[in-house]
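so my prof wants the structure for this chain in the C-alpha cells format not the other one, which i didnt know existed until like an hour ago. anyway here's the sequence
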Amino acid sequence: MPSAQEKSILVTGASGLVGSKVIASLSAQGRRIVSLVRHRSASQTSAQQIRWDLINPLPEDERALAEENLSAVVHLAGDPVFGIWTSAKKKSIYSSRVDGTRNLSRYLAALPRNRRPEVLICASAVGFYGNRRDELLTESSAPGTGFLADTCVQWEAAAQPARDAGIRVVHLRIGIVITNKGGALTAMLPAFRFGLGGRLGSGKQWMSWITLEDLSAAIEHAINNSDLSGPVNAVAPNPITNAEFTSTLAGVFGRPAIVPVPEFALKLLPGGMGEEALVASARVVPEVLLKRNFGFQFPTLGHALQHALGK
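here's what i got, hopefully its the right format
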C-alpha cells in the first residue's frame, strides 16, 4: 500500500502494446504505476497489479483500488478490433470499450473528492470519423457512421460521469500504431519481406498513423498539462494514402509492392470489418497537438518505419 502522500498512476490495458510502453516510460521517470488487470501475472514486474474486471467489477476489488492515491488514470483497455467480426466479436469490441469505460468512470466519480484522480486519459480511435474519403479531419470534425464510429462516439460519451465529477478527461483518438512489437504493421511484414505486399483495394484511402514512441509521449503530455482536455487526435502530422504506405513499407525492404488485395474481397469479410477497418478513408491531422507545439519524434512515415524495423 502506498503512503498517504504518494501518488499513483493507474493504467488499464497494461499488458498491451501501448500500455507496456507507457508503463516502462513512466516507471523510468520514477512514477509509481498501478496496473488494473483481470488476472494477475507474474511476468508484469514494473507495476503493482490490482485485479479488477472492468465489465464485472467485484466489491473486494474496488476496495483494493480505493486504497490507492491516484493522480492520473490512463485507460487503454479494449478487445482488439482486428479479427473476424462475428456478432460475438462486435459485442466484445463494443462492451469492452463502452461498458468498461462507463464502469471505471462511475467508480472514479464516486471516490471522495480528495481521492479522485486529476485526469482520466481515455483511449479512443480515428474510427470516430468513419469513412470520409479526402476530407481533412480535425478534432472539431463531426463523427462518421458505421459500427466503429458509433462505438467510438459511445466510448467517449461513457466517460461523462468522470467529467461531471470534475475530473479532467482527455480522449486520445489513436491512429494505426507503428511498431515492430505487434499490431497491424507486424501482420503485414511477412508478405512485404518477400515482395508479396501491395495496396488494399484502390489504395486511395487515407491512413492516419503514429509511432509507439510518439503515442507514449502524447499520453505523458496529456498527464502533465492540466489545460488539455477533450478530444486529441493521436496521429502523426502527415497522413498518407494506403498506396503510399505500402510503397514506403516495401521500399524499406528494397522490395516491390505489386500484389494488391482486391477491394471486393475485403468487403466480403464478415461483419463489415474489411470495409470499415481496411478500406475506409480517414485523413486525420493532430490539430490540437500541433497548436500546442508538441514535438513529434517521427513525423514522416519513412523515418518511422526505418526506426520501427531497425533499418
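also thought this was worth mentioning. The chain has a mean pLDDT of 93.
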